[in-house]
Amino acid sequence: MGDMTDNQEVQSLPLDAWHRARGARMVPFAGYQMPVQYEGIIAEHLWTRENAGLFDVSHMGQLTVHGERADAALETLLPGELRMLKDCRLRYSMLLDEDGGIIDDLMATRRGEDFYVVVNGATKLGDIDEMERRLPRGTLIDHMKEQALLALQGPKAVEVLERLAPGVSELSFMQGGAFRIGGVPAWISRSGYTGEDGFEISVTSAAVTQVADALAADPVVKPIGLGARDSLRLEAGLPLYGHDIDRTTTPVMADLTFAINKRRRAEGGFAGALRILGELDNGVPQKRVGFDVEGRQPVREGALVLDGEGNEVGRITSGGFSPSLSRPIAMGYVNTSLSEPGTNVTLEQRGKLFVATVAAMPFVPHKYHRKGAAA
Amino acid sequence: MSLYFTREHEWVRVWGDSVTVGISDHAQAALGDIVFAEVPAAGKIFAKGDDAAVVESVKAASDVYAPIGGEVIEGNAAIESDPALINRDPEGEGWFFKMKQINAAELEGLMDEAAYRDWVKTL
């Protein structure tokens, strides 16, 4: 492994010193030195499920897409409903290549005629290139490099943030708005990557230390590292870009068809629509599912899925120990004929076989704050 | 009774012509929360450097190597049923396995405790 030199400089987050002062173990991730853990992944994971966890996700790309008819422009690359999206509402969507492969997954919020788009850290520069090259002329991308991004997640997030930013408790899941935290302007969305109620908070890098201090001053808030972020999202059944989804997978294979609404299915008009609409009608050979793994040993990315006769029928793309369930869980792709929850399969990792069952996801129920019945 | 360490962060405690083997406090801290351990059965014979046991944290899987050759007397069932014991007491109750019939000459290539503790500080 010693020959894997990386010429790209690893950058520091605006909160670098803040993390180190709190005992974080820092690791390079997505081109940044990032906190992987503070007191320990399991403790941080369980704290977030029961209280409120503060995550620094400033490595992610924050973009504004503007120009005339930005909604229609984005709909050429994203399969989601953006034209009918109400002001200050956000949607989960995917940036697609012309074959329907997933270039990235993202959140898009309507802000008037513009869209505020949050993309993954490791893919942000490529995403901007793709959008600038492929979006209709007149659509402009502003990479808001000066913005930092925090997430406050967990059942007590709302009580903490409401004290600092009165009014945020009125937001429903997948709604955002402009607030102030101790005088600092903040764009706050009720969204996240843990399956819990919570918020994502965009503030300038210059002000992020002040905001992080204000949030962490509350005794129910602890800083949470990337390690627990990964175990939380796995329990929530949420895919991780570059592992569970990538250019070789489509939204249908990835079982993310909830992100393609009725109008977009009827009208098409997005990158890869021919293939994706065909897959919606005819099915796909493999799809993304969850797995309950027997025993105690984690089965991780790269393990094979085998059928009863030992044939390779899929692959694990994420896997690990679930702190909330105290047992191993995994996510991966399997032949559609074996994708029904309850189907027994065998997993193979480093020559060892594991008994597993296809499982419905999420593994741990979502606790999003939805108002009324309508989404 | 003497204590030796390997560069792979295993410790070896010698008692008579037998040894107890585990992973160091530095190793458990680097691994983080340990969620799985698999230890060898009695009777298993190892040469120095053989894969002897498995330890997995939330983050990653690691092999534990036989620091010297010998025959396993006992694997520690307590760490299989409670892997977090390795985090709590890595150089005591969280031991992995015991060996007899050891190749004592191989101990000479290992670090003594003072040398290991000093070396770990440089990592």
Would you summarize the structure shown here?
By secondary structure, chain A is an alpha+beta fold. Chain A has helices spanning 16-21, 41-50, 70-74, 124-134, 157-164, 208-216, 226-235, 262-267, 273-282, and strands at 11-12, 25-29, 32-37, 52-56, 61-66, 90-96, 102-111, 114-119, 140-143, 147-153, 176-181, 184-189, 198-204, 221-223, 286-293, 304-306, 312-322, 327-335, 344-349, 352-359. Chain A is built from nine helices and 20 strands.
Key structural traits:
heterodimer, A: 375 residues, alpha+beta, Gyrase A, domain 2, Elongation Factor Tu (Ef-tu), domain 3, 2 domains, 6-stranded mixed β-sheet, 6-stranded antiparallel beta barrel, globular, disordered N terminus, B: 123 residues, OB fold (Dihydrolipoamide Acetyltransferase, E2P), 7-stranded antiparallel β-sheet, 38% strand
The counted number of beta strands of chain B is: 10
| N-to-C order of helices and strands of chain B | EEEHEEEEEHHEEH
Through-space gap between termini of chain A: 48 Å
Helix content of chain B: 10-25%
Main interface by residue count: A-B, 15 and 12 residues
Characterize the main sheet of chain A. 6 strands, mixed
Mind telling me the CATH class of the domain at 30-105 in chain B? Mainly Beta
Oligomer: heterodimer
Rounded to the nearest angstrom, the radius of gyration of chain B is 13 Å
